[in-house]
Design goal:
The complex is a heterodimer of chains A (about 260) and B (about 325). Chain A contains seven helices and 15 strands. Chain A is an alpha/beta fold and about 260 residues long. In chain B, helix 3 packs across helix 4 and helix 5 packs parallel to helix 8. Classes of the chains: A alpha/beta (about 260), B alpha/beta (about 325).
């Protein structure tokens, strides 16, 4: 099987967000990680290979630092990596990213059986690339997947939906977006890390893909970022339990008017 | 031109987010001079059009077809894209629900337009739409513009007010080719019980490591039932296996904005605050007076939750 995992390098979830003077979010001194949901995607890709044979190709769009994220996935057990890197992709919107990925996957990396992504990235929280990519590649998709089985060229996926879950069946090739719970993500082993250094990592520009900067011009433009209004600590209620509870209920009812 | 709201129904009932989207669409249509239309897709759902009329729609377009009984992203996106091609709307609104999160980007790719996900505000000023979307789970807020002619947005549930208003309310059928869906829905398991769904609940009671174990959630559930609330969890409690991940609130869980969020035994890690920081009122119950939750709580109660919560439940019952 040819198995593809699409990843994104994001800020660590513990990162403090700083908005620079230009109204853009600063990445200075921020620890970068593989988007946590994409780790489930990579893990599932590797498990799929371990069960069915084949190769795992991990792909991303990013800058120089994104190579570290790809090497991490190679150390987990992916076979090779492709980085789409181009000045025209800096600050690209979800549409542009899916156009670049779709072009890569429909031409240079055609012939895949299954594509894994995370259900969303923890930075922009947009959750757009999985659905956009599935549409551009004309694939069946299962979103927010917590369980997956593959047999006889078919995928059966359990998907989290509001208030419950749903089971979907589809023929391969298909796109699966991973949710926490799909698997337990492995840590790279020391030999895995050593091996990863020699695994192929190809860097492609937009022109290598046959795309121009115009093809990926963003439609969604961030005018400015701002910090949310800071919440202030409110009242501390003290006293005996009964007294405190009576105070709390009275405040919720009469002051906050929420019960 | 128009503003189109993609209505969301499940098993023949419209979801609350649809009314939030219609109310927002109406406000924007009044500002921009567009007409407000709703697109209703499903099987045996034509009767729901009347309910949509309460929110000021000028026209409801209905696609009622046996092949659309079960929602599938690819088939619904094809219907939506065909409607957009006919209608050429300035803006299409969806809920940022599991339905809209999946359908909107698929439809946006088919239409080849820009989409802003998970908006907490949209305004029309100086001839353009401005979208506010929290990033890093609310640690920052981005202000976006979208190059037209068609723009799409998904709205965060529970943020936009529902306002009833009058509109022409015409109902038309929209006929289009319906492609065979690429996926088959073979089963649906909905959570049983009367508790509201986490992302659309008005009140959420959440528990964390301070509960001491999975049985601690019985207390949270009892409090939730006394308040008619949904039950949430911190990441620590999910990682410990005390609660399923679907209940997790935070940057790697659900982002919620209820009227009231009661955090019990939750220290208030940045990860968690990112998921519930937009709640209107926050109550923190924690035995550690230094816990970070007290820095954001409107009402902080320092003490033993095993004593406070039962007393709180009793007090709430007295009120009923």
């Amino acid at each position: 099987m040819k198995i593809v995992a699409c990843i994104k390098q994001t800020f660590d979830t513990e990162a403090k967000i700083v908005v620079g003077g230009n109204g853009q979010i600063s990445d200075e001194g921020v620890n970068l990680i593989v988007n946590p949901y994409d780790e489930f995607a990579v893990e599932e890709a590797i498990r799929t290979k371990e069960k069915n044979g084949g190769e795992v190709v991990v792909v991303t769009v990013g800058g120089d630092k994104a190579q570290e994220a790809l090497r991490y996935c190679l150390a987990m057990g992916a076979d090779r990596a492709v980085l789409i890197q181009d000045a025209a992709m800096v600050g690209a919107d979800s549409r542009a990213v899916s156009i670049a990925l779709a072009k890569l996957l429909s031409e240079k990396e055609a012939g895949y059986d299954i594509i894994f992504t995370g259900k969303e990235a923890v930075d922009d929280g947009a959750a757009q690339v999985p659905s956009r990519l599935a549409e551009k590649l004309d694939l069946a998709q299962a979103n927010v997947v917590t369980a997956l089985s593959l047999a006889d060229g078919k995928a059966t996926a359990t998907c989290e939906i509001d208030g419950g879950s749903e089971i979907l069946e589809m023929a391969l090739p298909a796109l699966i977006s991973a949710q926490k719970g799909l698997n337990e993500v492995r840590y790279p082993s020391l030999p895995g890390i050593m091996k990863a250094k020699r695994k192929p990592l190809e860097v492609l520009s937009l022109s290598d893909l046959g795309l121009s900067a115009d093809d990926v011009a963003s439609k969604v433009v961030l005018a400015a970022a701002e910090l949310p209004p800071a919440r202030k600590a409110g009242q501390r209620l003290t006293g005996e339990v009964d007294e405190v509870v009576a105070k709390l209920v009275k405040l919720l009812k009469e002051e906050a008017k929420v019960i | 031109m128009s503003i189109v709201v993609c209505a969301e129904q499940r098993d023949g009932s419209l979801r609350k987010i649809t009314f939030e989207a219609l109310s927002t669409g109406k406000r924007l249509a009044e500002a921009s001079g567009e007409t407000l239309k709703a697109l209703l897709i499903g099987n045996g759902i034509a009767g729901l059009a009347d309910e949509l009329k309460k929110y000021g729609v000028d026209e409801v377009a209905v696609v009622d077809n046996a092949a659309l009984g079960a929602y599938t992203a690819d088939a619904y996106a094809a219907v939506l894209a065909a409607y957009v091609a006919q209608e050429n709307p300035a803006l299409v609104l969806f809920g940022h629900s599991s339905f809209g999160k999946e359908l909107a980007p698929r439809a946006a790719a088919k239409v080849d337009c820009g989409l802003v996900s998970d908006c907490i505000d949209i305004n029309f000023a100086d001839g353009d739409y401005l979208f506010k979307h929290p990033v890093y789970a609310g640690k920052a807020i981005g202000n976006y513009k979208v190059a037209g002619p068609v723009r799409m947005a998904t709205l965060r549930p529970n943020v936009f007010p529902i306002v009833e208003s009058a509109g022409a309310g015409a109902v038309v059928n929209f006929a289009t080719d319906i492609p065979a869906a690429k996926v088959t829905v073979t089963g649906t398991m909905m959570a049983s019980g009367d508790r509201p769904e986490l992302t659309e609940a008005d009140i959420i009671c959440s528990g964390g490591r301070g509960l001491g174990g999975p049985e601690g959630f019985k207390l949270i559930e009892a409090l939730a039932d006394a308040l008619g609330a949904a039950v949430g969890s911190s990441r620590a409690a999910v990682d410990a296996g005390w609660r399923e991940h679907a209940a997790q609130v935070g940057q790697t869980g659900k982002v919620v904005s209820p009227n009231l969020y009661v955090a019990s035994g939750i220290s208030g890690a940045i990860q968690h605050l990112a998921g519930m920081g937009s709640s209107k009122v926050i109550v923190g119950i924690n035995k550690d007076g230094e816990a970070n939750i007290f820095n954001v709580a409107d009402y902080g109660v320092e003490g033993d939750l095993n004593k406070i919560i039962p007393a709180l439940i009793e007090k709430l019952k007295e009120l009923q």
